[in-house]
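Run: sequence + zinc ion -> complex structure.
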Amino acid sequence: MASHIVGYPRMGPKRELKFALESFWDGKSSAEDLQKVSADLRSSIWKQMTDAGIKHIPSNTFSYYDQVLDTTALLGAVPPRYGWNGGEIGFDTYFSMARGNASVPAMEMTKWFDTNYHFIVPELGPDVNFSYASHKAVEEYKEAKALGVDTVPVLVGPVSYLLLSKPAKGVEKTFSLLSLLPKILPVYKEVVSELKAAGASWIQFDEPTLVLDLESDKLQAFTDAYSELESTLSGLNVLIQTYFADVPAAAFKILTSLKGVTAYGFDLVRGTKTLDLIKSEFPKGKYLFAGLVDGRNIWANDLSASLSTLLTLEGIVGKDKLVVSTSTSLLHTAVDLVNETKLDQEIKSWLAFAAQKIIEVNALAKALSGHKDEAFFSANAAALASRKSSPRVTNEAVQKAAAALKDSDHRRATNVSARLDAQQKKLNLPILPTTTIGSFPQTIELRRVRREYKAKKISEEEYVKAIKEEINKVVKLQEELDIDVLVHGEPERNDMVEYFGEQLSGFAFTANGWVQSYGSRCVKPPIIYGDVSRPKPMTVFWSSAAQSMTARPMKGMLTGPVTILNWSFVRNDQPRFETTYQIALAIKDEVEDLEKAGISVIQIDEAALREGLPLRKSEHAFYLDWAVHSFRITNSGVQDTTQIHTHMCYSNFNDIIHSIIDMDADVITIENSRSDEKLLSVFREGVKYGAGIGPGVYDIHSPRIPSTDEIADRINKMLAVLETNILWVNPDCGLKTRKYTEVKPALSNMVAAAKLLRTQL
Ligand code: GLN
Ligand code: ZN
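>> structure
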């Protein structure tokens, strides 16, 4: 019985690759140093999988930045602005595409399906001259082979590569990306031939786009591509790997009739319908790679349940054709539980990170072949039972309260325009009111204070004093700048989700549970393991302190339930919406306590609401319904005079605008940095928005300082589409990552632009 791993995290158990990359980028270490760290990481991963007994071990799942960018390099599809002159693509060109350089900005980055991983979007036009320009896949295969490991080289499949690309500037409207298929396949043939020559007997093409809603011309491209590759692939076992959802029935038909393909990999964790398809029409004589070990979460597998699924599958495809695998690449989970020495022992027994998942995969494969490790299985069963019955997981009062929410609507009693009138009487704001999104620059000094407090090196008293001083500084600055609605600057927060998770019950935190977000950037999501409740107020102390420092309105600042959910590792023992309702109730308590403390503007960030949108359209309505409902639960109980803001980190919400309106916030601020068009087109198409709206008037992701004229110009563009009395003026996101030398002049110009326009209206 064989075992397989779809892919593995690259960063290393202690983020070794991150530090090696950043040191190289800073010019503090050489290319050889970086290559050495990377080679060590690869060899230790291959060794780990070999030792565990994994049969099909992947190679080329390592990347210096991103696997899609690696494919762009493989194909020599470097946009002309990077000045590449052919030859093998080196670090210079590669990292310029990834991060930009002194004269050219980086390529665009976007989210990898519904994960928090971001890939570099290929830019392709009719004139790209594809050539085989990176031999990385072959080099990695040979490198593993030299270490005695015969791996399965992994490539991003040709069709998914094109479907994830965007048309180059200037040809957006006219160009069909799939028309490039005949041009990229020759390069794929070259790399496949080289891999064969090097001794590969298997090859894996990742074609995750097969799980999307694809039109028939796109499906046809898969048939065309693999027919064209068939002769080159002959002699190899070819695995087409899908993940993140089930493959829709039509795509399943196409997939299982592809020429030259001998194996199919499915995500059986999220792909709930795949099992039925396999039962009804899996082709004879082909391999089934059964992704039963969850690549996107941190929970230990239910080994006995997986084993029984495997036995069913074995009955369908036959013993020698079934391979146990992970549901997705393990890239999306944390690396190794071994380093979690501070984590509570009971909770730890419920978890499996990437390193542990490899062992699980192998244990399942062994059990299927009659060598069940009884001790391992019973330890797993005991851990699962403890998780099920542990009092720290269940809080009956919370469960009851959350269950009761489902059937009611939770809407504020008064409509938004009446509420805005009531609020205006109280707040007395000018037209085009100015505000910011919440955080102010986080200086090294500030981080030090927080760190020392956490390590108990400074007293609570000293800590409170330092944070209050910081808040006071931020308040005074905003008053000087003459901003209308102030923020306290969030100096007490390391992260907008972690800060709340640490104060809510039902959350656990890891020391090293990092997951790659993009490039060298990693996030460390909290683990929601139990029913969520709020033992005591979380932000009232700081918000009241901040309000006491000014006569202007001070925004209370909270993270919304959907964002907390989407940026955490979530429970797999209850539906996501149930967990979200629980968080919503905790945030509702906080909103009401803020209101009682005299805070009359409260912002509830839902930065990640859109990010949780399911991959398939048929599931959108259900998600949006409970997500929007959860948001409303947090604030439907406040008075008319309390102004509820929300903030979102994206502007392409054409498809969800009605849900956004249904959130029924009083004011929404949104990221809008790169294009006014995308956002404004929604309103141009006749969508009436009655609430306040603040599309970001400048990009905080760049150190560039926008001029007053430039900002005024952007506001004017918005005024052409939106009513004057609903428009707010604000940057497009929090200022946490900027320096004061950038923030002060930028905000000063922003306020000047608002004032200038007020005189003209
Ligand atoms: N209030 C948060 C901040 O200003 C919002 C961050 C975000 O939208 N990602 O930092
Ligand atoms: Zn934002």
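>> summary
The pocket of zinc ion (ligand 2) is lined by residues 437, 607, 647, 649, 671, 733 (CB under 6 Å). Residues 31-52 form the longest helix (22 residues).
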